[in-house]
Design a protein that fits this description.
The protein contains 14 helices and 2 strands; from the N terminus they run H-E-E-H-H-H-H-H-H-H-H-H-H-H-H-H. By secondary structure, it is mainly alpha-helical. It has a two-stranded antiparallel sheet. Helix 1 packs across helix 14, helix 4 packs across helix 8 and helix 8 packs antiparallel against helix 11. This is Sugar ABC transporter permease.
Length: 294
């Protein structure tokens, strides 16, 4: 046994370290995904026997106006969340400067990252309150009344997504700070010798070294926007009149409150396919860019 270990430890060691995570991923993520797709082909109340309906849930989904409202809201979330990587990068560049008092500023930007999402939702619910919230205090300075954003069908999704953007920016900032702390000093020194300063240094020396971090930031941001749920649940419960519902929250409502687990699983499957399609497209573009630069 010891001889076998010595001969094969170069691949056995990483396998043994990866095995618990792979087992957990396979049993919790992959198995649950397959089960969700299977349930989406049935009519099921979550308690009794499943009834096979084939693609009926998906055909109903195609004719459901609320589904398209939820899909549109997810697109709005995605567009707003795309601000997180560039803003996070800008903040990381600022707080990474060796200036007195910058550590205090850096810790302030970390605050939304350590707060629970539910807490952020509650805080912004107070901020948006048209009677005594922070937004009303701001509008009161100019002698006007703050709009009731969470009660307005046209602006509620933008307001909730903006609240979710706050911790996402902090998360991207932390990622880029980690990348900035691992920059190649030799490349930076060579850039300075060649006369690179300011924007030229950032564009030609710093940003290329942050490409992997940028990939992670964008991928996590897109997935976070698509699976948005808790902020909607805390701040609006999908209202008013379903105008702020996203796909994840509609799935929750259909499954838990309407006892339509098959229909909810169909929504979850569509959301899963959208995520997989994005990740596959993004990875393809990243690999193509890496090959072109090689």
């Amino acid at each position: 046994m010891s001889r076998f270990w010595r001969r094969n430890r170069h691949w056995l060691t990483p396998v043994l370290f990866l095995l618990p995570g792979l087992i957990l991923f396979g049993s919790v993520i992959l198995a649950a995904s397959v089960e969700t797709i299977w349930i989406s082909l049935h009519a099921w109340d979550g308690i009794g026997q499943k009834t096979w309906v084939g693609l009926a849930n998906y055909l109903e989904l195609a004719d459901d106006p609320q589904f398209y409202v939820s899909l549109k809201n997810n697109v709005i979330w995605l567009l707003i969340f795309m601000l997180a990587p560039p803003v996070g990068l800008a903040l990381a560049l600022i707080v990474n400067q060796q200036i007195r008092g910058m550590r205090i500023l850096k810790s302030l930007f970390f605050i939304p990252l350590v707060l629970a999402t539910v807490t952020v939702g509650v805080v912004f619910g107070w901020v948006y309150d048209p009677n005594f919230g922070l937004l009303q205090l701001f509008f009161g300075v100019f002698g006007s009344t703050a709009p009731a954003l969470l009660s307005d069908e046209n602006f509620v999704t933008f307001a909730v997504a903006a609240a979710g953007l706050w911790p996402q920016i902090a998360f991207c900032m932390v990622l880029f700070l980690a990348g900035l702390n691992n920059l190649n000093d030799d490349l930076i020194a060579a850039g300075r010798v060649d006369g690179a300063r300011g924007w030229r240094m950032l564009r030609h020396v710093v940003l290329p070294q942050l490409s992997q971090v940028g990939f992670i930031a964008i991928a996590v941001t897109v997935i976070g926007a698509l699976r948005s749920f808790d902020m909607v649940a805390v701040m609006t419960n999908g209202g008013p009149y379903g105008s702020s519902t996203v796909l994840a929250y509609q799935m929750y409502e259909e499954s838990i409150f309407s006892y339509r687990f098959g229909y909810g699983a169909a929504i979850a499957t569509v959301l899963f396919v959208i995520m997989i399609a994005f990740i596959a497209w993004y990875l393809h573009g990243l690999v193509k860019a890496e090959r072109s630069n090689a």
